[in-house]
Specification:
By secondary structure, the chain is of the alpha/beta class. The protein is built from 13 helices and 15 strands. The structure holds pyridoxal-5'-phosphate.
Length: about 425
C-alpha cells in the first residue's frame, strides 16, 4: 500500500463534516477512514491493514477491487458510460440473462438503483398485479429507506417515516427470542405461520397484495428460517391470491452458500428483490426478478414506474463480470465451505467458551453473535459493550459489522480459510480482553 499518503487521510477527515452521513446526527459520528481495498483487505491512508469482516454493508461478496470486475467497468466506460433506460443494450441484456440463470422459473428483470427502490418497485408490481393495497412484513426486518420500503421495514428505522399506508407487521420466527413460547424450530415455524394466518384473516385476505420477507433476515440478526416456514408462506399466499415477495438484497448472490437464501428451502417466490452482492456494489444497482405469472400483468398494461439509470451500462457490465467470476471461481461453493467447516464450528466454539455469546447462528458467510448479559435470561448487552468490542476489534485490524447487541460475522465470500481462522482468533482475543 505504498501509494497511500497520510496527508490525504488528514484532508479526508477535514472534509468529512461536509457530509451528512446516513442515519446519524450531523457531527456525531467518527467514521472509519478507508483509502484502498483488495480482496478481503482494506488500508487506511497511513497504510494500516485491516481484514474486512463486514463486507462494508454486507455487499462486497466478491471482495474489494476484483480485477475482472474492475476491468469490465473500465471497458464499458470507454465504450458507452451511460444510456437511456428505453434503449436496447447488450450489457443490460446479458446482466438480466446472468441473473435469471441463477434462479429457476423466473421470466424477467426490472433494474433499479439499489435495494430500497427494488423493494419499492416489487411492492408496486404486487399492488398493480392484485389490485390490492396491503403488504404484510416482519417486525424484525429491514427493507430500505424509501417510502413503501421503510414502511415495510419492521425495525425502529420505520418509526419517524410512517407516511405510507397499507403496511401490516407480524413477528416472524426466531427461536432464540421466541414470541410464541416455542421450544423447537418446528414449533416456532408452525406457530409463526399460524400467527401470520390469523393476521391475514383479521386484515381480510382480499385486501392483501403481498407477503414480503427477507429470504434470510439479515440486519435483524441473521434469523435462519426454521424448516417449513417459507413453504408455509408460499402456501398461504397461494390460498389467498397474495404475491410472495422475497427480499434477497442482503442474503442473495452467494452470501448464505447458495445463490439465493430461499433456495435452501426450495420455495418458489413470485418476485425477488436484489442489490448488494449482484455486483458487490462496485456500481450502485438493484432490481426485481419477476415470475411469468406477475409478468403477464405487465404484458397487458405498462408498469407505472421507471428510473433514468435503470439498467445502467456500467452496473450491467459489472453484474456480468461479477456473476461470471463467481461462477468460474466457485465463490458460492467456497462460501458454503467457509460456513460449514470454519466459521460455523469456530463461532460455536467461541460461544462455548465466552459466557457473553448467547448464541452463534447463521449459514455460509452470514453469521451473528448474539451477546447477552447472562445466558439464562438472554438479556441483550447494552450498546456500550458492543461499542467497546467494536473499537477493540478495529485496533486488532478486524473490521466488524455491529448492530444492536450483536456482531455480525459477514466477510467477503472469497476469504481464505487462513484469514477466516485469523478472524476467529482476533474475536477470541477481543472477547478475552473485555
Ligand atoms: N433489503 C434488505 C434485506 C437490506 O438488507 C437492505 C439494505 O441493507 C435493503 C433492502 C436496502 O438496500 P439499499 O440500502 O441498497 O437501498
Amino acid at each position: 500500500a505504498s501509494d497511500l499518503d497520510p496527508a490525504d487521510g488528514a484532508r479526508a477527515r477535514e472534509l468529512d463534516p461536509l457530509i451528512l452521513h446516513s442515519w446519524s446526527k450531523h457531527g456525531s459520528t467518527n467514521p472509519f477512514t478507508v483509502a484502498r481495498g483488495e480482496g478481503v483487505r482494506l488500508w487506511d491512508y497511513d497504510g494500516r491493514e485491516y481484514l474486512d469482516f463486514s463486507s462494508q454493508l454486507v455487499n462486497t461478496n466478491i471482495g474489494h477491487s476484483h480485477p475482472k470486475v474492475v476491468e469490465a467497468i473500465q471497458r464499458q466506460a470507454a465504450q458507452l458510460a451511460t444510456v437511456a433506460p428505453a434503449t436496447t443494450n447488450l450489457a443490460r441484456g446479458e446482466a438480466a440473462e446472468r441473473i435469471l440463470s441463477k434462479i429457476d422459473d423466473m421470466a424477467a428483470v426490472f433494474f433499479t438503483n439499489g435495494g430500497a427502490d427494488a423493494v419499492e418497485n416489487a411492492i408496486r408490481m404486487a399492488r398493480v398485479h392484485t389490485g390490492r393495497a396491503k403488504v404484510v412484513s416482519h417486525y424484525r426486518s429491514y427493507h430500505g429507506n424509501t417510502g413503501a420500503a421503510v414502511n415495510a421495514t419492521g425495525d425502529a428505522r420505520r418509526i419517524g417515516n410512517e407516511f405510507a399506508t397499507g403496511h401490516v407487521h407480524v413477528f416472524g420466527p426466531f427461536l432464540y427470542r421466541s414470541e410464541f413460547w416455542a421450544e423447537t424450530e418446528e414449533q416456532e415455524s408452525e406457530r409463526a405461520l399460524q400467527h401470520m394466518r390469523r393476521v391475514i384473516e383479521a386484515e381480510g385476505p382480499s385486501t392483501i397484495a403481498a407477503i414480503m420477507v427477507e429470504g434470510l433476515p439479515g440486519t435483524a440478526g441473521i434469523l435462519v428460517p426454521p424448516p417449513g416456514y417459507l413453504q408455509g408462506l408460499r402456501a398461504l399466499a397461494d390460498e389467498h391470491g397474495i404475491v410472495l415477495i422475497l427480499d434477497e438484497v442482503m442474503a442473495g448472490f452467494g452470501r448464505t452458500g447458495h445463490w439465493f437464501a430461499h433456495q435452501h428451502d426450495g420455495v418458489k417466490p413470485d418476485l425477488v428483490t436484489f442489490a448488494k452482492g449482484v455486483n458487490s456494489g462496485y456500481v450502485p444497482v438493484g432490481g426485481v426478478i419477476i415470475s411469468e405469472r406477475v409478468l403477464e400483468t405487465f404484458k397487458q398494461r405498462a408498469i407505472p414506474g421507471g428510473l433514468t439509470y435503470a439498467g445502467h451500462p456500467l452496473a450491467a457490465a459489472s453484474i456480468v463480470a461479477t456473476i461470471d467470476a463467481m461462477t468460474e471461481e466457485g465463490i458460492v461453493e467456497h462460501a458454503a465451505h467457509l460456513g460449514a467447516d470454519i466459521l460455523g464450528p469456530g463461532l460455536r466454539e467461541l460461544a462455548s467458551r465466552h459466557e457473553m455469546i448467547g448464541e452463534a447462528r447463521g449459514r455460509g458467510c452470514f453469521w451473528a453473535l448474539d451477546l447477552v448479559t447472562d445466558r439464562g435470561s438472554r438479556v441483550p448487552v447494552d450498546a456500550s459493550v458492543v461499542a467497546s468490542l467494536k473499537s477493540s476489534l478495529l485496533e486488532r485490524g478486524y473490521v466488524p459489522f455491529t448492530t444492536d447487541n450483536r456482531i455480525h460475522v459477514v466477510p467477503p465470500l472469497v476469504m481464505s480459510d487462513d484469514d477466516a481462522r485469523r478472524g476467529l482468533e482476533i474475536l477470541d482475543d477481543a472477547f478475552s480482553a473485555l
